Amino acid sequence: MYATTDTLATAPAAQGGRSRWLALYTLCAGMLMIVLDVTVVNVALPAIQDDLGFTSSSLAWVVNAYLIAFGGLLLLAGRLGDLLGRRNVFVAGLVVFTAASVLCGLAGSQEVLVIARFIQGVGGALTSAVILGMIVTLFPEPREQAKAIGVYAFVASAGGSIGLLAGGVLTQAINWHWIFFVNLPIGVLTAVVAVKVIDKDKGLGLGRGTDVPGAVLITAALMVGVYTIVKPAAELGWTAGQTVVLAGVTLVLLAGFIVREATAANPLVPLRIFRSRTLSGANLVQALSASGMFGIFFLGSLYLQRVLGYDALEIGLAFLPTTVVMGLLSVRYSEKLVMRFGPHRPLIVGLSLIVVGLALFTQAPVGGNYFVHVLPVLALLGLGGGVCFPALMGLSMSDVKPEDAGLASGLIGTMGQVGAALGLAVLATLSATRTASVADTKPALEALTDGYHLSFAIAAVIVAAAVAIAVTVMRPAKPATAATETEELACEAA
After folding, report:
1. Which of 52, 71, 155, 310 has the CA that lies 20 to 30 A from 268?
2. Where are the transmembrane segments (predicted)?
């Protein structure tokens, strides 16, 4: 089932009909602000570099500082929502993110901007980690839950392409400072409305999960892991000594965390949550699909910029069809598909469409035409994402107890973030390696295109692996037949 009655039996009483949808829109506004930030900043990086004097290598920290804090704290933030109340954590995250955004906009030095971006990542993690858990609690009825998750999935997955357009407009029309200042009115308004329209929930209390060693271990593991992916692995290579050492440290910290959680009286992350094949499979699919999709949005933007000569605003407009198609499906039709076919089949179909789109992108030539070589790809990615992501979000929460909803929400977010960072690092590295290997035998633009083609092909393989997991690990249980039920009753009687 999409959401079981048992799963939500102990959930707080749902808010009234109108206020629930206002609460959903408020949650999505907070999520949109967080999602937009990533791609908005990417578009503005050249302007930031020129203004503050970043070198090419140090400029990466404008992005990396945010990713390390965000990816490292998502899981902890989700659990804090369960313990302290999800609305409290959501609003606190908005306050931190908004204040840090103002500091970013005022930054007159490299150091201030990087520190402010790290704080932004902390606020982003607190805000986004609890949203999905709040949605499934607000909407326990399957049909409404499917529709609500469709709206959330659209914002979470398509917001990045909106950020490309917004970043281009703000940077070119005013200056890069305003990509951060624009968060001030949005963040304040969202926080005020959240307090008014979202009922305050009472958390389990710190006594139910004050696992300080576990929190330190998992946060350190995720931060070191994300740093390893975005810094030494991307810049020095996967076999470099620094990469290998830091990867080893990450694994040791993860192993220590698992041991701690298996023995702690009140674990931060109860390992029982992973007994669900649906939950575990959904997180694997999330990591793999994010690896393929996020890397392609980044490298696809580079293809449009470096090979086809698009500027920042044109790139944003080019990706708009993905947003439109994904939004139409997520908001209007995903709920109907899920209720008609269940979440499993739309997930497989949507992922398969993404694979086809990525494979098609490998045919985009040096002198590519947007309507022939790019638009069909972006339409397929939007179509696939609009079909599969709402189903995936619903499946990730379908077997979760209400008291673990924040944890599960943070977990699916963590897997998406780590998967995106890993996918981008791998695809960008392989693309650059391929380009360098043919640079002596091919013109510059052809060498670049060869590198992008390789990354698109590998992304297709990665998402195909997600399809395989969805088909095998996440296959729905067969409904019990009358004969089976009779046999079970006889066994119980015996």
Report:
1. 155
2. 21-47, 59-77, 89-108, 114-139, 151-170, 176-198, 210-230, 236-259, 280-303, 315-334, 346-364, 370-395, 407-432, 452-473
